[in-house]
Design a protein that fits this description.
This protein has 304 residues and is an alpha+beta fold. The chain has a single domain, classed as Clam (outer membrane lipoprotein receptor (LolB), chain A), CATH 2.50.20.10. Helix content is 15%, strand content 43%. It has a 15-stranded mixed beta sheet with strand order 1-15-7-6-5-4-3-2-14-13-12-11-10-9-8, covered by helices on one side. A hairpin with a 2-residue loop joins β5 and β6. α1 packs antiparallel against α3 and α1 packs across α4. It is globular. The C terminus is likely disordered.
Amino acid sequence: MHYRFDFNLKFTTSTSVQTNHPITKISYWMILFILIICNGCVVIISNPGQSPELSDEFSSHLQTLQDRYDLTGSLKTTKMMVRIQEEGSPPDYLHEMLWYKKASDGSDLLRIQALGGFNDTKGVAIANRNRFLLVLLDEQEAYLGKLSDGVLRKIFGLDLRVSDMLSAIFANPFLDGRMNDLSIESTGNTFIVSRPNTEPDHTETITVTIKDGEPRVTEWKIQNNKKAIKQHVVFLDYRVVDGVLRPSTVKFERPIEQTSVVITIAEVQLNVEIDDSQFDFQPFLNDDMEIILISDPEKSDTQK
């Protein structure tokens, strides 16, 4: 087993690593999913505080969205298609499998496997509490590091919050507990919610549509004070899975990076038994694997 530190790792077209290489596509989006879904710094508010001006009707819809997260102790997908479209390039398609579980201490655990053309495993990404592991099996490389917003920015050069994907997977942008300073407009069965983003001079707009008495987050935009869209997420094809209403298609758009991603989940099971060994790093940290440690460049030295 060989170790080395890599502080300038970036899976973007601005570096020597080209994103048109299939395994780079896999590693890029697997880490992106991991970093946004699970992170020790994500704060999930079980009983979020609310702006005093919220109506009883909208407050009840927010509670329903929260209940869907609370009722999901585990999630398993065996058929998930990811379509990646970059400006000027043909789309790429990835087949993936996903396991998600709430640990007994309340932490979020996640494992994603990317499959090749013959359903062989090409990459494995695991988030276990505040650490993540990405394994590229053909290259015999494993990237190991702390799960944080800083790692996300360092790897991808993207200014994303770790909590964004957790909110996206559960179709609930309010999971981060930022319930103050909400501005709400109501038209028929649709609520348009605006709130300040964590980045200065940026605003989030969240569309909640009520259908058959059930709230559905259908759109989530982040834009700057010049109305330029930084991130746009659309939630489609809501279905009831094991008693929980959830979208089966999620579309991400990042106009600045000229990239869009469509996630389509064909088969999903909720609250199934998932053994903790699915989220164990050790089986991949063997003598045949080169371990690349992603950490603070100011506190570490490069070594082989």
